[in-house]
Design a protein that fits this description.
Blueprint lengths: L12 H6 L10 E4 L5 H12 L3 E6 L2 H13 L3 E6 L5 H15 L4 E4 L14 H29 L2 E6 L11 H20 L5 E7 L6 H10 L16 H8 L10 E4 L5 E3 L19 H9 L22
Parallel strand pairs: 1-2, 1-4, 2-3, 4-5, 5-6, 6-7
Antiparallel strand pairs: 7-8
Helix pairs in contact: 2-3, 4-5, 5-6
């Protein structure tokens, strides 16, 4: 099944057990962005253990080299390509490196991302721009070049990274917006790639990574804070390997997620809810809209946010 031994530096026995994924990625070439640390490094090592040749990308050379060295020490194949994916030309060069090294690109994992907590009434321009540039622009830039190559090949799989924060979550206005954009792009790209042999999906992971460090600082500055207990990155890699492998050859345009409790789920797509209604007099006035909603002539108002809150009525 293309599984390589993982008795390498930085790979624990727990990693080894988790990387026995039951998939074969032999003869596949995969690019993983943000693969120097955390979830990206875990995905890179797991893909290599399943037989893939991995292009390890990070903006920071040292952790990228460490990840690649661990893969090679375990008998896998890896090359390092340092690039800032927020720069369009560098993102294109990353994908072209894979094409040059391996003659094709079978998979792209758009893992690189940032999370800089802030309240929506305190948004800082620099934080917002960085979040959107890394999470959205980086994903689109890498995907554009990869999709062009995959479309010509007539095969390939892109795995984007979204989040439940797109549904609405405290202190994550720009982060949630960026992940909503990633999900929307996933749906659009999957529609456009229909019939080409190219699949585009997204994962919504839950893992202990450096993102929690920024959250710690933000929350501790506002009072007592109990850091959430999240699983290690290796607990999430099954989603990525599934979507990169032929096991998911019939799956596209989907969001697969893991809750912190370990529950696997499929997220719904934005959709028009039924029933709908036609204007009683041919024109929807504000009053007619209010009556239609209050009388249940159209679908019910939806729970709000990731925690499915019900919006209370605020008396003036």
């Amino acid at each position: 099944m293309g599984q390589a031994p993982l008795a390498a530096a930085g790979v624990t026995p727990n990693d080894e057990a988790l990387m026995e994924q039951g998939v074969d990625l032999s003869d596949k070439a995969v690019v993983v962005t943000g693969a120097g640390r955390g979830l990206g490094a875990a995905v890179g090592r797991a893909a290599a253990a399943a037989g893939a040749a991995v292009v390890v990308n990070d903006v920071d050379p040292q952790p990228a080299e460490e990840c690649a060295n661990a893969i090679r020490a375990a008998g896998g194949r890896a090359v390092v390509h340092v690039a800032d994916i927020t720069v369009w030309s560098q993102a294109e060069a990353l994908i072209e490196r894979c094409l040059h090294e391996f003659g094709k690109i079978d998979g792209l994992v758009n893992n690189a991302g940032v999370h800089l907590p802030q309240h929506c009434w305190e948004m800082d321009e620099a934080k917002v721009r960085k979040t959107l540039e890394v999470n959205v622009l980086g994903t689109l830039a890498c995907s554009a070049r990869a999709l062009k190559a995959m479309r010509a090949q007539r095969f390939g799989s892109i795995v984007n990274t979204t989040s439940g924060s797109q549904m609405g979550h405290e202190y994550r206005p720009d982060y949630g917006a960026s992940k909503g954009a990633v999900s929307s792009f996933t749906f659009t790209a999957a529609v456009e790639m229909k019939g080409t042999g190219v699949r585009v999906n997204a994962v919504s992971p839950n893992a202990e990574t450096r993102m929690l460090d920024d959250l710690d600082k933000f929350m501790l500055a506002r009072g007592e804070w109990q850091r959430p207990s999240l699983p290690p990155p290796e607990h999430n890699v099954g989603m990525h390997l599934y979507l990169l492998s032929d096991l998911s050859r019939h799956v596209t345009g989907q969001i697969i997620g893991l809750r912190a409790t370990g529950e696997l789920y499929i997220a719904s797509h934005p959709a028009i809810l039924l029933p709908t209604a036609k204007a009683p007099q041919g024109v929807w006035t504000a009053r007619a809209i209010g009556e239609a909603i209050d009388q249940g002539l159209v679908a019910s108002l939806q729970p709000l946010g990731f925690k499915r809150l019900r919006q209370p009525i605020v008396e003036r």
